[in-house]
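To the wet lab folks,

You asked to see what we're planning to order before we commit. Fair enough. Below is the target structure as tokens, and below that is the sequence we designed to fit it. If anything looks off to you, flag it before the synthesis order goes out.
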């Protein structure tokens, strides 16, 4: 860590955030969902699209995605980042954008994503074919595993073997997510869900049932980042980026040194160090819950509990409404929204909580939040620590 990097703490703030079409949005393309959410986020910030001179975006559907986005939105950015590392991309975009803002390269950065994954006509054969093309060096793809399901099932099995975690412990995560979703009118699945419902659901990749797995939805999400001094003059309560860290240790699940330890250990350490905070200082936690095992792994690796204690940590509704730690207060990828890549929605929910916009699910007095993104098969990890003005 050097002084210049540490000086970026709180130098930029999120001043606008929005979603669009979460759940089902038939007739919309990826680009249309992105554009609708982008325009809403820019308006939320009290800006116009002509004020946007920085753009961060990524998509699994196109390798040069940023260029048609620029064209479609009608902007001419002086700063552009289209780094694609899966679902963590939009949280990983934060620190480079902060550098660009601090240097004067740009003044307002739009981070945006959209996917019509649920209503688009795209089958499993096409998905497998595209992954083989995108990962030509993969040792796994020739065997056509059920990715990403089987990879996360492997990690869950190892955690169960090594630490005594049970399927009931994993079910606690799904049930807590659903309890939060039932308080969120935007959530796609709001029906009651019990531990027995999860345990009795159709098995898709042992030990994961369909209720251990994220939704497949449509949706767009966007947020706007500006320098801290400018944020004070804009209409919304600024949410400051106190820390951000990104780490990648592997691409394939078979290349992990330890299936129970992810690169979140590094991304979290860096983000907390930059923020000058620790897990005990965090009021609300948003984790990339593509699968129930993710939440246990990330709670451990980010330091909310010791390695192997994630199962005990979530038991008895501990991360559900009324529990010791509010986790995934929108319902997460398990019950709210998951259009291919979820990271941007985790961050937007963190912003909404800090701005006091959570409605029935609002965490009273929330001043600090974590938004954590995951990409690939436990491959890329990015952690953001966010806070209100009094945390600067």
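Sequence we intend to order:
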């Amino acid at each position: 860590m050097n002084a210049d990097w540490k000086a970026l703490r709180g130098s930029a703030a999120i001043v606008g955030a929005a979603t669009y079409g979460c759940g089902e949005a038939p007739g919309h393309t990826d680009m249309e969902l992105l554009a609708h959410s982008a325009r809403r986020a820019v308006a939320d910030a009290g800006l116009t699209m002509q004020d946007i001179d920085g753009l961060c975006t990524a998509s699994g559907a196109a390798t040069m995605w940023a260029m048609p986005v620029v064209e479609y939105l009608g902007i001419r950015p002086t700063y552009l980042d289209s780094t694609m590392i899966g679902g963590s991309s939009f949280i990983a975009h934060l620190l480079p954008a902060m550098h660009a803002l601090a240097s004067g390269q740009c003044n307002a950065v739009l981070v945006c994503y959209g996917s019509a994954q649920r209503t688009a006509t795209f089958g499993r054969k096409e998905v497998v074919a595209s992954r083989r093309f995108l990962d030509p060096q993969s040792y796994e793809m020739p065997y056509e595993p059920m990715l990403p399901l089987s990879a996360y099932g492997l990690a869950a099995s190892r955690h169960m073997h090594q630490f005594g975690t049970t399927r009931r412990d994993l079910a606690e995560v799904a049930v807590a997510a659903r309890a939060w979703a039932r308080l969120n009118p935007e959530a796609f699945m709001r029906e009651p869900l019990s531990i027995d419902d999860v345990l009795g659901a159709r098995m898709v990749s042992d030990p994961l049932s369909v209720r251990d797995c994220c939704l497949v939805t449509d949706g767009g999400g966007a947020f706007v980042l500006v320098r801290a001094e400018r944020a004070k003059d804009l209409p919304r309560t600024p949410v400051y980026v106190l820390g951000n860290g990104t780490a990648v240790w592997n691409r394939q699940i078979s290349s992990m040194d330890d299936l129970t330890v992810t690169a979140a250990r590094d991304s979290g350490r860096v983000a907390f160090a930059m923020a000058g905070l620790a897990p005990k200082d965090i009021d609300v936690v948003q984790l990339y819950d593509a699968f129930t095992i993710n939440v246990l792994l990330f709670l451990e690796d980010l330091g909310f509990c010791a390695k192997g204690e994630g199962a005990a940590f979530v038991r008895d509704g501990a991360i559900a409404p009324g529990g010791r730690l509010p986790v995934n207060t929108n319902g997460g990828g398990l019950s709210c929204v998951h259009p291919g890549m979820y990271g941007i929605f985790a961050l937007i929910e963190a912003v909404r909580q800090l701005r006091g916009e959570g409605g029935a699910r609002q965490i009273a007095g929330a001043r600090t939040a974590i938004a954590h993104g995951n990409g690939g098969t436990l491959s890329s990890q990015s952690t953001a620590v966010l806070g209100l003005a009094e945390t600067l």
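Structural context that might help your review: Residues 30-44 form the longest helix (15 residues). Residues 35 and 73 are 7 Å apart (CA to CA).

Thanks,
Computational group
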